[in-house]
Automatic annotation (TrEMBL):
Originating organism: Paracoccus kondratievae
InterPro entries: CE2_N, CtCE2-like_dom, PCW_deacetylase/CE, SGNH_hydro_sf
Membrane-spanning segments: 9-26
Positions of the Carbohydrate esterase 2 N-terminal domain: 67-167
Descriptive protein name: Lipase
Key words, A-Z: Membrane, Transmembrane, Transmembrane helix
Gene3D superfamilies tied to this protein: Galactose-binding domain-like (2.60.120.260), SGNH hydrolase (3.40.50.1110)
A molecular function (GO) term: carboxylic ester hydrolase activity
Record-linked CDD domains: Endoglucanase_E_like (cd01831)
Length: 388
């Protein structure tokens, strides 16, 4: 009886393993991001039409509310490089145009809840026609990461339209400072092996954890982030003179002399800058011998960086965001930074994340990871939901 029972168990286990192996190979792989990205893509059931045309003459500019780090461009436009630059305006009429000199970026343009996306529009206007008569709100947002500056020239209407005052700003602004995870690098992808074009197609900063948190709190958001960047060091020790400490004050990282346009102070500042510091091996030529040595410098450096941001944004709450998967040294350094901020009387919260799945391109956070990160931040900010 015992030997027969054993044979049945062994046969059953062997069958289970065989089924699992077959399922592994039969299961379809996640779809690749669609490339190339269409230059113009209208959402389904959109009533209006959209096309790219040469810059038009005899149009009137619409007053707009602008959010994001930028420098002045020609004729009242905006030069931008940091992620998530966005603009909102209102008008009355059946057509509207958006002006670009941009061979780099992807944009989503929303009118009354219907959207059109454009990719690398170049030196052209996006002409949107066939809008139902009446009053409208239009929002344009850069959803890709830019390797250099580009121009958003603003919104324009013809003589048949009428400009209206832009909407009042949200009661609060949250600034998110970080690296590719904050950018939303390839966050809509469902696989890790991606080409450069697929990464471009899969990145949507507006769907990253920062905008999710801001929308949940009824706030606006500004994102100062860059792939590969860190505070004391960048990923792999690259560009040691271009860490976030050096680039943060700049309106345009690629044009250090560009003057920054005035911007609204932030009410909450979320800083996630440790992953690239601890996420790659130290080079023998770097000044740290190991991660413990690096952690001793990183904690005070993070506290100093956070204090400078708090001084620039009086009364702002600082949130230190640590990706705990990068090791105990990162976590220890974040706790040290939080303690130093406490000693200096700077209001702060510390959020150390559980290990995300990182199923998107090149092991970046996926859509579900960004939702998890947003939930963790919202839990830390729950007592601020009414502005407290």
């Amino acid at each position: 009886m015992r030997s027969g029972w054993t044979r049945e168990v062994v046969i059953g286990l062997a069958c289970s393993v065989l089924i699992a192996i077959v399922a592994l190979y039969v299961r379809p792989c996640p779809a690749r991001p669609v490339t190339p990205v269409p230059q113009i893509a209208l959402a389904e059931n959109t009533a209006f039409s959209a096309r790219l045309v040469p810059w038009q003459q005899n149009l009137g500019p619409l007053p707009a509310a602008i959010t994001g780090r930028a420098a002045p461009g020609p004729d009242g436009g905006y030069r931008h490089e940091w992620p998530a630059f966005h603009a909102v305006a209102r008008f009355e009429g059946t057509s509207v145009s958006l002006r670009f000199d941009d061979s780099l970026s992807r944009w989503r343009v929303d009118i009354d809840g219907s959207a059109v996306e454009i990719s690398r529009p170049g030196l052209r206007d996006l002409l949107i026609e066939g809008i139902k008569p009446g009053r409208h709100e239009i929002r344009a947002e850069k959803i890709s990461e830019s390797p250099g500056p580009a121009l958003f020239g603003g919104f324009f209407i013809n003589d048949a339209g009428r400009d209206l005052a832009p909407p009042e700003p949200a009661p609060r602004l949250i600034e998110f400072i970080g690296d590719s995870d904050t950018v939303g690098f390839a966050n809509t992808a469902e696989r890790r092996d991606c080409t450069e074009d697929e990464i471009y197609a899969a990145t949507d900063t507006s769907r990253s954890f920062g905008p999710q948190v801001a929308r949940a709190l009824g706030a606006d958001y500004r994102i100062i982030a860059r792939s590969g960047i860190g505070l004391l060091r960048n990923y792999g020790g690259a560009d040691p003179e271009r860490t976030m400490g050096q680039l943060y004050p700049l309106a345009l990282p690629a044009d250090p002399q560009a003057p920054a346009l005035p911007q609204r102070p932030a009410d909450i500042i979320v800083i996630g800058l440790g992953s690239n510091v601890f996420g790659s091996p130290l080079d023998p030529q770097e000044r740290w011998t190991d991660n413990s040595d690096l952690a001793r410098d990183f904690g005070p450096a993070l506290a100093d960086f956070a204090r400078a941001r708090a001084q620039e944004n009086p009364g702002a709450l600082v949130v230190l965001l640590g990706f705990g998967e990068y090791g105990p040294e990162l976590v220890e350094a974040h706790h040290r930074a939080a303690a130093l901020l406490d000693e200096r009387g700077i209001a702060n919260r510390l959020v150390v994340l559980d290990k995300p799945q990182r199923n998107a391109c090149l092991w970046h956070p996926s859509a579900s990871d960004h939702a998890m990160i947003a939930e963790a931040l919202l839990a830390a900010l729950k007592d601020t939901a009414q502005g407290g």
